[in-house]
Amino acid sequence: MPARTLVAGVDTSTQSTTVLVVDPDAGEVVARGRAPHTVTGVGGARESDPAQWWSALEHALAQTGRAGEIAAIAVAGQQHGLVVLDGGGHPLRPARLWNDTTSAPDVAALLADLGGPEAWARAVGSVPTASFTVTKWAQLRREEPLDAAACAGVRLPHDFITERLCGVAVTDRGDASGTGWWSPATGLYVEDVLDLERVQLPRELLPTVIHGGDPAGRVRPDVAEELGLAGATVVAAGTGDNMAAAIGMGAAVGTPVIGLGTSGTAYCVSEAPSADPSGAIAGFADAGRNFLPLACTLNATLAVDRVAAWLGLDREAVEPAGDVVVLPYLDGERTPAYPLAAATITGLHHATTPGQILQATYDGVVEALLSALDTFALHPSAPLLLVGGGAQGAAWRETVARLSGRPLVLAREPELVALGAAALARAALDGDGADAAAIARGWPAARLDEPLHAVPRDDARRARIARTRALLHELNADA
Fold first, then answer.
1. Could you count the other beta carbons within 10 Å of the beta carbon of residue 254?
2. Where are the domains of the chain?
3. Which of 36, 109, 112, 398 has the largest count of CB atoms under 10 Å?
4. Which pTM was predicted?
């Protein structure tokens, strides 16, 4: 069997699993694999069978052809999802995903139970929305009490895969900070939340929280045989997808980042915890010892692609939007918190073209993310890191550049989540609290391109979108 000289990073995302195999010394990606997931649900429901995540991991690893050379592996995954396990470690039901908004009726009740948004922000750093795990657990107890009563373990998606790999119930501080029952400021589960009448979640059902680059254990012998891994492969604790992406791009403290994928994100690495009682910014931890204040929108690339399909256009076929404003809340919205809202188009004329409507959809997605980023009080001319699948599109890049007025920096490696996970695997292999972000910054695979020159910021366009959103606030707040 070949010597175990490589590390692997896994991104178990909403729609697929990606594996990058990396030479930990040279910092080069030597193999890739990818396998799709299926998401089910109508209306606001979004669910997946966790068994398919495991099957996708098996197929993606096999595609790399290098599984037997992997000395360490780490998993990064979609945040917030709720996986409930029976006593044998098997899922009791499909996992509710981060973009499932059907727990919206539980949000207001939970907020009141702890004393309102300010109390939640103080307790866990964030004001929960329908995306957060705590709201999904409250919904399960209300709608499916038999499954809740039978539950012997509550996990996040990346925890589920990590536990199957090594048999240890562990999570990391980054992903734990998106549950709504763990505090980034104290580093502890919050008993006042776990004891709420609508939650009633025993502490023993939850995994141990460590740093993402700390070793969780080693791959179990039966799993190593199943996946083609060598025996005794080190398993890192892993982290959430946004935390892993920040590592994969080597993001420094204070650097603004916008991610364009299924969801949209705006965040930066911070040395201090945050607690925003407005709920616009989630006060997450990162996978190491810093923090990751973040705003997330449910509607990003999928919203643009849907509108393009309705209009019969290629996604790049845009024209200056003129008076058209699109608030693209096709899946409801998380920021602002309108989980049951619908999309809105205003400013149409007889002369309006499909290309203008499409550009307005891009503008609506990007302006929401930039408005959130503005609350971070970052230097106004600091280069903006643009990541995610959307960063590869010319229309996305032009829109972000025009509405931000900042120089843009692009990552050379598109699979930053998996790359960040690979750096966590290297950190676990090294031990002694190795810094995964520092490891990634030394890898050629994590290098960033030279900044694209800034263009004048289109303040008039941003103001028009903001005014429209303000006018429609009451309508969407009732939705």
1. 14
2. 6-245+415-446, 252-410+449-477
3. 398
4. 0.89
Domain 252-410+449-477: top CATH class: alpha beta
Q: Provide the CA 417 distance to its chain's centre, in angstroms.
A: 9
Q: Say yes or no: do domains 6-245+415-446 and 252-410+449-477 share a fold.
A: yes
Q: What are the residue numbers of the active site?
A: 241
| Domain 6-245+415-446 sits in CATH 3.30.420.40 | yes
What region, left, alpha or beta, does residue 167 occupy, with left being phi > 0 and alpha being psi -120 to 50 degrees? left
pLDDT digits (tens, 9 = 90+) for 193-241: 999 999 999 999 999 999 999 999 999 999 999 999 988 999 999 999 9
Distances (CA, A) of 287 to 75, 364, 404, 423: 12, 30, 28, 11
Burial class, 160, CB count within 10 angstroms (exposed 0-12 / middle 13-18 / buried 19+): buried
C-alpha 452/C-alpha 194 separation (Å) is 47
Closest CA to 464 of 359, 320, 347: 347
Q: Is the dihedral of CA 83, 87, 90, 91 positive or negative?
A: negative
Cα–Cα distance, 55 to 164 (Å, whole number): 12
